[in-house]
């Protein structure tokens, strides 16, 4: 039985820009349908239109039928009642999506009390019931808690509980696990599947992650540029994509599935002397009135020249603190860091020390929107770094070098003259890489350098990195939460948890023969499609 | 947790007041003019008379001892003697304080009510005509200094329309309010823009938050969403700025009270500065500093009531 039927949905902004070009989509009762696409593909807009949440002034045509009534033409009171009892939405970031100034109980009960006119006691009973349904440990106590007292995974359960409170027939989930760690993601997906089956809801699941879509959903719609490009059973779309765009997307999606005949990629160059030697690095954050947080406990790491080492861990594992200590943004409590056999002491204070540290190690940060000066063009950003470290070079030479560097990361001269705001995320991250390479550091630290990028852009940036490694024999410390990405870049990896390295091995071995139970949990939590005849 | 916060606040509050009192007291030694010659003005003082007056007001002591006597006296409610009124400073100020407090309170209520209402309407209509209209009017009003506002208000509402008295502070509760309306409007007009703009900014920021969209997606009425999720969350900055506003209001009383012939602390300050009445000037300035510091300490302590994260020591977001 069809629950949701979108037909010919178009959406125009007041400025005349068309964002959706005739979407057709159906969800049946009890069915899970994925809407997959990259940023700007219109998948979130489509999801929001199901709840009647449209940008102000937007013009729509077509129909969004839910149980036979058209959401787009509902009168305001009908729309409110529809949102309270027929369809509900789970948003991406529970930290942002739940009012931080009100209690969990208030969040769960307000629509029932203020919208449906339920008594406080009755609404409270329902709140406890849905909290228990999403496996929250102490439903009674949580009602009094504020969002900042709960972890991200717990909060996402609260958000799901809030959506379930009105007993909806249709649940729309917009990237509900993207802000969460992989092990937490696995738990949330289990809760969603459980509740879908128990309540025989229809589930419309929006995600950028093809692996996730294919592992959870019955059918998949691939969206691109405001259109549905391809539609079909999840496995079929993933294994045998028909359209060119879907094929590209599948190819660009990193996976942790190891082919049986796959051998570890040899290092780009013959193993050289150790570039980075970290010994017993320890760092503890002590905040007044709270438990001390161990960001690093006796961390020991080596990287040889030309190697790339992956550091994998969930949020709070200490991987970013490790990177920041190596770069000199943070001071270690104990232990030593040596680069090229030269021991680095604490945080550099003097100008000479800072320049010296910068020549040894450079960092590429996660968010290229924040890490570039908005008023400097791409080539100025690179020239600036060159000028700082080679004050005697002539400006003309610096400029030539900057353009060469930018072209080596795949940016043309016209893009070199552009300000960051006119560049895409991937182009910006390439500028950040070129700027880091300008100084010719012994070690390049990349902290979640591709996490903010779309998969196809991420694939391009990863290609740039491996090309540069081949050409220059660059040594890389690659930090990521994503095992599949680390696997594309690094021959060896370490797994961190709560400031400790729990396992260190060739990346392929980590994926195929994890020794530590935590590594096994991480690998098992990554969603993937079961391949026929595959080894996982 | 709460007790530690209060104690910490009290400590920094005391330190601020001690530093301010020292600065206020010793700055008088840098001002030209000798209080003794003012006390004996219009006469041909004999050396004996000078010595007697100097002795009486303790002006012969070294400055730091005068300071300690001043501070010590204040703890016993003794702010010294006014040179112009030949009376206790506490009496002189005490007589004038109620009308000034009434004036500041009335102006503060006007500022908060109009500012928050205007800012809210602007935020909910952001980018459209009501928003632009409100911003333009508020900004224009903000450009009117209190003394100009006072003159215009007197000319229109007191002289032309004869709705309000132009002078004095009246007797009894309702008469006093009637007298204080024009002066407090004169004080309020230039500050409404501040609260209005802060309210608008803070609410526009909250309106863009994801939790507002979540609340909307759950079928709450638009007004309920604004009240429970936008306005409530926007209160923090409005609160903070309101506390800072107190300083501006207290300073404005000096001008407005003079313009409307109100015998309050503000006009007393102007008068005392003109007449080199140091004990009164020092006491008033210290009172203003104390009022400012205490109000802002209270605002800080009340923040956790608005934002539970402030209690947990988690700023931001």
Description:
- The complex is a heterodimer of chains A (536) and B (317).
- Helices cover 40% and strands 25% of the residues of chain A.
- The radius of gyration of chain A is 25 Å and the shape is globular.
- Chain A has 536 residues and is of the alpha/beta class.
- Chain A has a 6-stranded mixed β-sheet with strand order 6-7-8-3-9-10, with helices on both faces. In chain A, strands 16-17-18-13-19-20 form a 6-stranded mixed β-sheet, with helices on both faces. A 4-stranded antiparallel β-sheet of chain A has the order 2-1-4-5, covered by helices on one side.
- In chain A, strand 14 and strand 15 (342-344) form a beta hairpin.
- Mean pLDDT of chain A is 88; it is low at 532-536.
- In chain A, helix 4 (104-116) packs across helix 5, helix 5 (120-133) packs across helix 7 and helix 18 runs parallel beside helix 19 (455-472).
- Chain B is an all-alpha fold.
- Chain B folds into 2 domains: 33-78, no CATH class; 91-311, Orthogonal Bundle (MetI-like fold).
- Chain B contains 13 helices and no strands.
- In chain B, helix 1 (2-27) runs antiparallel to helix 12 and helix 6 crosses helix 8.
- Chain B is globular and about 85 Å long.
- Chain B starts with a helix and ends in a 6-residue tail after the last helix.
- Chains A and B meet through helix 2, helix 3, helix 4 and helix 7 of A and helix 9 and helix 10 of B.
Task: Spell out the blueprint of helices and strands.
The complex is a heterodimer of chains A (536) and B (317).
Chain A: E1 2-12, E2 18-28, E3 32-36, H1 43-50, E4 59-66, E5 69-70, H2 76-85, E6 87-90, H3 94-97, H4 104-116, H5 120-133, H6 139-142, H7 152-164, E7 170-174, H8 182-199, E8 202-207, H9 210-216, E9 219-224, E10 227-233, H10 234-239, H11 244-252, E11 274-285, E12 293-304, E13 308-313, H12 319-327, E14 334-339, E15 342-344, H13 351-360, E16 361-364, H14 368-371, H15 378-389, H16 395-408, H17 413-416, H18 425-438, E17 443-447, H19 455-472, E18 475-480, H20 483-489, E19 492-497, E20 500-506, H21 507-512, H22 517-525
Parallel strand pairs in A: 3-8, 3-9, 6-7, 7-8, 13-18, 13-19, 16-17, 17-18
Antiparallel strand pairs in A: 1-2, 1-4, 4-5, 9-10, 11-12, 11-14, 14-15, 19-20
Chain B: H1 2-27, H2 35-39, H3 47-56, H4 63-75, H5 89-124, H6 129-142, H7 146-160, H8 173-207, H9 210-217, H10 222-259, H11 265-274, H12 278-306, H13 308-311
